[in-house]
Design goal:
Layout (H helix, E strand, L loop, with lengths): L1 H7 L14 H8 L12 H10 L4 H10 L8 H8 L13 H4 L9 H12 L3 H13 L2 H17 L4 H11 L9 H20 L1 H11 L4 H13 L4 E2 L11 E5 L2 E5 L10 H14 L5 H7 L7 H9 L9 H6 L1 H17 L24 H12 L9 H7 L6 H5 L22 E16 L5 E9 L2 E7 L1 H6 L9 E9 L6 E9 L5 H10 L12 E5 L6 H12 L2 E9 L5 E8 L3 H11 L3 E5 L1 H4 L1
Helix pairs in contact: 1-12, 2-11, 4-11, 7-8, 8-9, 9-10, 11-12, 12-13, 15-18, 24-25
């Protein structure tokens, strides 16, 4: 897909004849910038790539073969020998011709076969029998091959003592021997993807996003990678988006545009209809033009809502305004369809001549509601990030995640410290915040719960390690989709920055200063998280079920500590089971959904 996009803009490229010596591709790998590069993108692999600094194709083949349980323990030795920090030694000079390109370390099954042929005079067939015996760990066959190999080496003027040492050195190879031709095939694709990422980053990332479009967790990672590469990722647009992710011009520079097929609940058939109509007759000029020209069975209320909520129709109007006019839009579309069936035409021969589409006024959708729609339908926050507003309030008291990962001089960066559970936290103490996107809980050997959380802000994502002491003291802070403020120590033990949390608190919009005071006070008895009461909603009996469903979705997308109750027409309070973070935006979003209902925020004492 990447190659096709590159060729479409007139660039000649043959992925199968790339030179294996491209400096930019190796520089990318040496820097560990291998997200999206086949076989080379795990955290551990990135760390080893930075240490190895691959400079030739053989290095990539070796890493593919070695980065597996067992042989992985040989990687530091391989790296040290490459850079001369440790000597390359051979049990016999003849081994140099076999193991020279891997610095004296046996990595591949083919090397074992070559050793048997050159040191013991084995035929290709006999060498393959030895390979099978070692690879399958068949004791009877191994015993036979051992004596045959030793005697063959002795007959080839290698002292018996040395021959037996060579066998003893070979035998553990049975645990990890890898087929070099297999590793070379993987390495070739790794090199090709590294080359594309280095030279054609926009097309490569667009193709990668297309390939992963059904995996929202993966999309989030890749879009963050785009941002770190300086590649803008634009939301879907009815006049620019293709079905898949594409490269477009934006403000005079290339950018990646979301594909329509990545939007949930917008069917493939409708996507094809939109793109085909636009391709055949040009961009849509306005909403009326869109409703007249797109007459597809899948262009219904659900798909239109999704197009609006994801910003696909932003060029035609504000999202809250368009959603408030859904019935007008759908009614106009139905009228156009009826006219088309009746054969009505205007003076110029076009189908669907009608009165002007008139929309009623409506309040714009609050940002938090818009971002919740994007998260739900695209899998991530795209047009903005929910933490950004709080970050502005915190100012220089809090660092961004980008600054945690790439240290800058900052007021929130302090001296080194050691966390109270005896874990060395690193050389920097930082205060930062964001939204928790992923949580993994584990149980320690002592039976205590701890967790690993991924926290994201507009600048990046970071892993946070939460030891039992901290988790016990701040359990309410560690929920997915919760905004949280964290103080902790940066650890770069594995070559990837992470934070060992010392204290954390949930961030409630409009109460950021309280969270900052709590973080500054530590976890003493006198320092308590900001208290919240309850939110009580009185709903109109006429509120349709669809609005109730929309209300619940909105509340769930605004997680926090404040419980939400609904007051029935009889005055009875019913818990919704949902907790939210109170804010002016939350109230505005609820108001936009429930209309004439009332919203009362009761304080902690009233909440009982």
């Amino acid at each position: 897909h990447a190659v096709n996009m590159i060729r479409a803009r007139g660039v000649t490229i043959d992925i199968d004849t790339l030179p294996r010596t491209d400096a930019a591709a190796y520089a990318l790998l040496q820097a560990g910038l291998s997200t999206g590069v086949f076989q080379l993108e795990s955290g551990g692999m990135k760390r080893y790539l930075k240490d190895l600094k691959p400079s030739e194709f053989e290095d990539i083949i070796a890493m593919v073969a070695l980065y597996r349980p067992g042989p992985m323990e040989l990687i530091p030795e391989y790296i040290d020998r490459k850079f001369g920090r440790k000597p390359v030694e051979y049990l016999h000079p003849k081994l140099k011709t076999v193991l020279g390109n891997t610095y004296g370390i046996m990595v591949y099954q083919e090397q074992l076969m070559q050793l048997a042929r050159e040191l013991a005079g084995f035929s290709m067939s006999e060498a393959d029998t030895l390979r099978k015996a070692v690879g399958k760990k068949i004791k009877k066959l191994l015993d036979e091959q051992r004596e045959k190999l030793i005697q063959g080496m002795v007959a080839n003027e290698i002292p018996e003592k040395t021959a037996r040492k060579i066998w003893e050195w070979i035998e553990p190879f049975a645990r990890y021997g890898f087929n070099r031709s297999h590793a070379a095939c993987y390495a070739l694709i790794a090199y090709q993807t590294a080359f594309l990422k280095a030279h054609f980053p926009h097309e490569f990332m667009a193709a990668l996003l297309t390939a992963e479009r059904g995996n929202t967790d993966r999309l989030s990672i890749l879009i963050q990678e785009c941002r770190e590469m300086g590649i803008p990722v634009l939301g879907p647009d009815v006049n620019e988006s293709a079905a898949l992710f594409t490269v477009v011009e934006s403000k005079g520079a290339p950018a990646v545009r979301f594909g329509l097929a990545a939007i949930k609940n917008v069917g493939e058939h409708l996507v094809e209809s939109l793109v085909a109509e636009r391709t055949a007759h040009g961009p849509f000029s306005d909403l009326t033009d869109l409703l007249i020209r797109v007459q597809d069975k899948d262009f219904n209320k659900k798909s239109l809502e999704c197009l609006i909520r994801t910003g696909t129709l932003d060029r035609f109007g504000e999202r809250g305004h368009l959603l408030a006019n859904m019935e007008q839009l759908l009614g106009y579309g139905r009228a156009v369809a009826r006219d088309a069936l009746a054969g009505q035409t205007n003076l110029f021969g076009g189908v669907g001549a009608r009165a002007e589409l008139r929309l009623v006024s409506a309040d714009p959708a609050p940002e938090r509601l818009r971002l919740g729609w994007e998260k739900d339908l695209l899998g991530l926050y795209l047009s903005a990030h929910p933490f950004t507003a709080s970050a502005r309030v915190f100012g220089q008291a809090v660092v961004s995640i980008a600054e945690v990962k790439h240290p800058l001089s900052h007021q929130a960066t302090e001296g080194s410290s050691k966390d109270s559970e005896g874990h060395r936290g690193g050389e920097r103490s930082v205060t930062f915040g964001g939204i928790i996107t992923r949580v993994k809980r584990i149980v320690t050997k002592k039976g205590d719960a701890m967790l690993f959380a991924e926290v994201e802000d507009a600048t990046g994502a970071l892993e946070v390690v939460v030891f039992p002491r901290v988790l016990t003291a701040t359990p309410q802070a560690w929920m997915v989709e919760t905004m949280v403020l964290i103080r902790g120590n940066v650890s770069e033990k594995d070559g990837t920055p992470k934070v060992l949390a010392d204290i954390a608190v949930q961030i409630i919009p409009d109460q950021e200063r309280d969270a900052l005071r709590f973080i500054g006070g530590g976890m003493q008895a006198s320092a308590r998280p900001p208290e919240v009461g309850r939110l009580v909603l009185t709903l109109s009996d006429a509120l349709p079920p669809a609005r109730l469903s929309e209300l619940r979705e909105f509340l769930v997308a605004s997680p926090g500590s404040m419980p939400v109750f609904v007051r029935s027409s009889t005055g009875r309070l019913v818990s919704t089971g949902v907790r939210v973070a109170p804010s002016s935006e939350l109230r505005a979003g609820i108001r936009a959904i429930i209309g004439e209902g009332t919203i009362v925020e009761e304080d902690a004492l009233m909440a009982g």
